[in-house]
Design a protein that fits this description.
about 160 residues; mainly alpha; about 80% helix; 8 helices; globular; CKLF3 protein
């Protein structure tokens, strides 16, 4: 009897492998930030479900779904396929609003409510605020370089025509 090779037995089927994001994207800074945003938003969502201010769970759920959508959109390179949207601007606006919303509801959760789940959600919310702020700072730098490139090309092209 021959023993099956461990590499063949441990390898997942090709169908499941296609659902996972590529390793290059997971090692990239954008992939790590989007993964951290998704995980933090999910943890905050779970904490708000178990806490007194359950109305705050809607913000965490929406941010979780948006971060998860952009994670898989960037991982599957939808941003290169759909050129109609300017993806960095959409990502920048999402990050700015998420940082502001998480900061506001974290302050409210920590200062107003005394249960443990609210305090945990507030602490994770402050961490998520920092992660979203880092993401929008990096995305803002990409936007500035794009706008500088676009503004220098536009006036000269109109003057020569």
């Amino acid at each position: 009897m021959e023993e099956p090779e461990p590499a063949e037995a441990a390898a997942p089927p090709p169908g499941l492998r296609s659902l996972l994001p590529p390793r290059e994207f997971l090692c990239a800074r954008k992939g790590q930030l989007l993964l951290a945003e998704s995980v933090l938003s999910f943890i905050i969502f779970i904490c708000y479900i178990a806490s007194v201010p359950t109305a705050f769970m809607m913000a965490a759920l929406l941010e979780f779904l948006l971060a998860l959508f952009l994670f898989f959109a960037y991982a599957s390179k939808l941003n290169e396929k759909f050129k109609g949207l300017y993806w960095p601007l959409m990502d920048f606006l999402r990050c700015v609003t998420a940082a502001i919303i998480y900061f506001a509801i974290s302050i409210a959760a920590v200062s107003k409510y005394s249960d443990g789940a609210s305090k945990a959600a507030g602490v994770f919310g402050f961490i998520a605020t920092i992660v979203y702020a880092i993401d929008f700072y990096i995305t803002f730098n990409d936007l500035v370089t794009f706008l500088k490139q676009g503004s220098s090309d536009s006036p000269e092209g109109h003057k020569s025509e």
